[in-house]
Amino acid sequence: KAGVTQTPRYLIKTRGQQVTLSCSPISGHRSVSWYQQTPGQGLQFLFEYFSETQRNKGNFPGRFSGRQFSNSRSEMNVSTLELGDSALYLCASSSIAGTYEQYFGPGTRLTVT
Amino acid sequence: KNQVEQSPQSLIILEGKNCTLQCNYTVSPFSNLRWYKQDTGRGPVSLTIMTFSENTKSNGRYTATLDADTKQSSLHITASQLSDSASYICVVSIRNQFYFGTGTSLTVIP
To answer: What is the pLDDT of residues A40-82, one digit of tens each?
Structure first.
């Protein structure tokens, strides 16, 4: 069974731009969660989607948004990028909501200049 | 405030030696506590998951323990290998909320 895939793996953007990251969960998994990881803050929860509905949201500004499609693939969008948005963005999938067992993708490394 | 703190922040050990990583938490009550291993440039991989009623869980050379009274967990690595060099992250969850430690960076040297 293929694992969680994320595209692109690396991305360089400039301040003020917007970016869309994509995540394809493990086949059959309906829950997708997004995390931001920085050296100083560690992993921080962004949001979780289950069956196309946002179930849970972390403490991030409205510039961070997401959605999930009927095939469970998910996208995350960050508008008006700031230098502090430079991070590794990780996606994790789970077969059930509440994410008892999460499987992480390799992440997208976003650099904002 | 719910917090998960890990120590040490970084650790260097010789190949073949044992080591223990610590995780102290204030999240209470919690659903489960997990340890993840994250290799550089990769996503975290689950090592162990424990519910509040379990006090030990093993996965090969990795053994996690949990003391719910003192709100402490430890991850013991036996006979370390070069491939154990990674960050180890402790995560405590309550239902749908996750609280992450900032991780311990382990370097195993020959």
So the answer is: 778 899 999 999 999 888 889 999 999 999 999 999 999 999 9
Q: Which amino acid is at A81?
A: L
DSSP assignment letter at B15? T
> Residue A100 has what pLDDT?
65
Among A98, A101, A106, the residue with its CB nearest the CB of B95 is A98
Phi, psi (rounded to 5 degrees) for B14: -85, 145
- C-alpha B94/C-alpha B27 separation (Å) is 8
CB-based contact A48 B44, cutoff 8 Å: no
Is A104 at the interface with chain B, CB within 8 A?
yes
Burial of B22 (0-12, 13-18, 19+ CB in 10 A): middle
